[in-house]
Amino acid sequence: MSLRIGMLLSVVCAALLLTGCEAGKKHENIDQGMEAIAQLDYEAALVCFEKALVEGEDSELLYRGQGIAFIGLTRYEEAAQSLEKSLSFCNGHVGSLEFDINYYLAVAYYKNGDTDRAIQVYDAILDLRRNEKNAYYLRGALKLEKEDYDGADADFRKAIELDKEDYDCLLDIYISMEKNGYKEAGTEYLQKALTEGGDEISDYDRGRLYYYLEDYDNARNCLEKARNTGTAEAVLFLGRTYEALGDFNYASSVYSDFLNSYPDSPQIQNQLGICKMQMGDYEAALVAFEAGLACEDTTYMQTLKFNEIAACEKLARFEEAAALMKAYLQLYPDDERAKREYEFLKTR
Fold it and tell me: Which pLDDT tens digit goes with each residue over 302-329?
């Protein structure tokens, strides 16, 4: 499952941390465990949940948290068992918390290699909530991986129908289509959105659609207008558009100008680093990646850490890169690309 899907799930579930508590049950250790998860310290989180079990805290939340921690540790079978146990304490009540748990359960099944079972979870969600847009998108993404194009297409179209102005979802769909060899079909989704959206589409969203359609001139024109909004997202796409046009110097200045006003923007620091890497300025790239890591935003932590290692490699700082990769794999043990790179680094 892609990083985008993982990020989407974190958005879906973030607001549901302590809903549905058993009446009169405390959850101090559960709170501490969830805080540890937010800091990517999954082992510490498990210790908190064990304490919560001993002290009789809310069972449904306890096992939910334990399941999430096991996902973080790539112990997916145990994650599924904990999440299933969490659901066993819902006492027949199905609310937002239970839907949240099921989203995590689908991830655990998928990561454990049981895509069919993950799809069944989304089936169950949609049986109860027919307008659950995220479930349609996520189920469609899994169907696409199983080469069920017709099933995926139906789910994607339903997700779009439920909210035609959700261009984040539309672009996630396009990326899933492209990744699985259906770029041309994905392009049709984007072109249809441009045609049907008309003048109602913002400059930012129109620019993003043009960017993924590889119409970089139109993307630049729209995103230059959107730049005035001062958002990191608009700056990110504008800079990436200039990179696609081959103007890395101007792209770099777009990122740098924004960072002069908003230095705590990890996604812009990361893209500046990538731009500098493409320019061959690896020292500047490393500075940018380290500045992004200093923001301590866990959303971008994995990407920034990996790119930091890549910059060290380019600078022939192999011993440092190997040490960083070892620490990286302790946090993200299921990154197969990182495992292969670590084996290479150990020989340098």
Answer: 999 999 999 999 999 999 999 999 999 9
Could you tell me where the beta strands, DSSP code E, fall in 22-151?
none
Task: Give the angle 37-259-231 at the CA atoms, nearest 5°.
Answer: 75
232-270: pLDDT as tens digits = 999 999 999 999 999 999 999 999 999 999 999 999 999
> Tokens in use for 40?
């990517």
Helix (H) or strand (E) holding 164: none
Residue whose pair of structure tokens reads 């495992």 in the numeric block: 339
Rounded Cα distance, 196 and 164, in Å: 9
Q: Could you give the CA distance from residue 110 to residue 264 in angstroms, rounded to a whole number?
A: 34
CA trace torsion 108, 45, 65, 8 (10° rounding): -60
Both ends of the chain: CA-CA distance in Å? 32
3-state DSSP assignment of residue 93: coil
